[in-house]
Amino acid sequence: MKDVTVISHPLVQHHLTRLRDKRTRPEEFRRVLGEVAALMLYEATRSLTVRSMAVQTPLASARGFRLQREVVLVPVLRAGLGMLDSILQLIPNARVGFIGLKREETTLRATSYHQSLPPDLKEFEVVLIDPMLATGGSAVAAMDLLSDLGARHVRLVNLVAAPEGIRHVREHYPRLPIFTAAIDKKLNDRGYILPGLGDAGDRLFGV
């Protein structure tokens, strides 16, 4: 699929398998989710724009690079929180915004209940984080909020995606880069990914 990167690194796939396993308990699920998020971020940020700069080492001048734009990490509550801390360890100077979305179980539509974001995002690199891309409703709702604030440089990072969700996002945001560890078979009649890994938020927090 165009602009969809499936990260097939052996360590990513190893961790994904542990997360799929129903025997994995919440404390291990939290740890492994953080580990795989950090690994995925390397691929997801490969195309970040940098600018050249000079730096003085203890011995001589050297040419280096610096990120051209400030980074904003935006986890979708609540499951996105499980990926945030490990990513912050890699980009400790990143800003953090939050989007709270709740899926209505009968219509499967996502409604917003919380938003905490910088007021103007047009000059930022935005990394939208949500473990599951199922129906795509939450991703589109989050992108609508980001677009309203002027976001132009956004990438979506999901652990597992469904073809239906990718198609739905593409209908609304055809050029949004999507990074995932797996594109699974389909959604069931409740809008859950098959085979998936269950409800990521429930497994993350044990409720």
Layout: helices, strands, pairs:
Blueprint lengths: L3 E3 L3 H11 L5 H19 L5 E7 L4 E7 L3 E7 L3 H10 L4 E2 L1 E6 L6 E7 L8 E5 L2 E2 L3 H12 L4 E9 L1 H10 L5 E6 L2 E2 L5 E2 L5 H6 L2
Parallel strand pairs: 1-11, 4-5, 4-6, 4-8, 8-10, 9-10, 10-11
Antiparallel strand pairs: 2-3, 6-7, 12-13
Short recap of the structure:
The protein is of the alpha/beta class.
Q: What does this protein structure show overall?
A:
The structure is a single chain. The model has no long low-confidence stretch (mean pLDDT 92). The protein has six helices and 13 strands. Helix 1 runs antiparallel to helix 2 and helix 2 packs across helix 3. The two termini are 34 Å apart. Strands 1, 4, 5, 6, 7, 8, 9, 10 and 11 form a nine-stranded mixed beta sheet that branches. The longest helix has 19 residues. A hairpin with a 5-residue loop joins strand 12 and strand 13. Helix content is 33%, strand content 31%. With 207 residues, the protein is an alpha/beta fold.
Query: What Rg is obtained from the alpha carbons, in whole angstroms?
Result: 17 Å
Topology pattern, helix = H, strand = E:
EHHEEEHEEEEEHEHEEEH
Helix content: 25-40%
Distance between the termini: 34 Å
Distinctive features:
207 residues, alpha/beta, 9-stranded mixed sheet, two-stranded antiparallel ribbon, 6 helices, 31% strand, globular
